[in-house]
Amino acid sequence: MSYLKLDNDVNIYYEDQGQGTPIIFVHGVWMSSRFFHKQLPHFSKNHRAISLDLRSHGRSSHVQSGHTIANYARDLHAFIKKLSLENVVLVGWSMGAFVVWEYVKQFGESNVKASVIVDELASDFKWDDFPIGAFDFPALIHIMREMQMNRIGFLQEFISLMFKHPLSEDDFEWILKEVTTIPESIASAILFDQSVVDYRDYLDQITIPTLLCFGREEKLIPVAAGEHLHKHLKNSQLIIFEDSCHCPFLEEADRFNKIVDNFIQST
Question: Gene3D superfamilies attached here (predicted)?
Answer without folding.
Answer: alpha/beta hydrolase
